[in-house]
């Protein structure tokens, strides 16, 4: 640390999946670009993310971002087969009255109704699954990633590029102008100088550089929660989305359990208070989902996870330049879908920085 004489073309504050994706796409389009990513080790949302990519969205804007993200990940899987991303079959359990809403939310995948054979098969995968009075649908195009490992792979590639670095240590607490460029600082210490800066600090954004701007744009911090269910899923187990409850059941084959992601209602928390716990309210919410769909799993809870993420009022990522700071862009507000939307967020941030790197797979 403390090497102010070293300059970079682009500095990224934050090494979660959004920051890692910004650095990766920037170098793809500009191989000689000198990129610095500042890693302070606080990437809870990335390392604890469920990593599910099912391209949907409640608004046209969300659907466009989700579709773009899926397209970029498909390209990356083809170019870098070792990345920890795998296809996953996706099934939907939904009340018939909500079918139109679900169809409108799809950003590319096609919905088909599961036949009796598929229902019987799922009953074997998840004994006691309740679908008799609901629609059971299937869609293609789903994928699951180990998001922490994926971000690590992208950062490792950056480390290997001449002139680029990934630095760990104390967080960047300030950005200040210097002769048409920007110094990244921690207290009085200058870490580096860069011509452009992307701020991708996730749930810590309200307390980090340009936190006043993030707060003024309505960015709030919410808990994201999931339970682990100690039943080993079969190798061909799909993900089941319970759209009426904003929840899903994901097979985590590598660890040998099912993950139930559900909606936590805890808002306006601070990462500075330490990692969050699953509250009694969280557990009651999860129990309600299990009781509605797979009551046999209610007795199989073997753990869980919780982390913070930044949410915006309209649930669209906050990707915009900072007024009065030319060459500085915010890339915040994963809204619980930071992995799924990271490619589209990164592309937009780079466009605003005049580093448009979209390749020939535009969609």
Helical/strand content category: alpha+beta
Low-confidence stretches: none
Fourth-level CATH superfamily of the largest domain: FAD/NAD(P)-binding domain
Terminal CA distance reads 41 Å
- What is the N-to-C order of secondary-structure elements (H for helix, E for strand)? EHEHEHEEHEHEEHEEEEHEEEEHEEEH
Helix content: 25-40%
* Shape type: elongated
Tally the helices: 9
The CATH architecture of the largest domain would be 3-Layer(bba) Sandwich
- Reading off the top of the CATH hierarchy, the class of the largest domain is best stated as Alpha Beta
Major β-sheet annotation = 8 strands, mixed
**Strand residue content:** 25-35%
Here the CATH topology of the largest domain equals FAD/NAD(P)-binding domain
Nearest-integer average pLDDT? 93
How large is the radius of gyration?
Answer: 21 Å
**Number of discrete domains:** 2
How many distinct beta strands? 19
Keywords: Oxidoreductase
InterPro entries: FAD-dep_OxRdtase (IPR006076), FAD/NAD-bd_sf (IPR036188)
EC number: 1.-.-.-
Domain FAD dependent oxidoreductase: 9-349
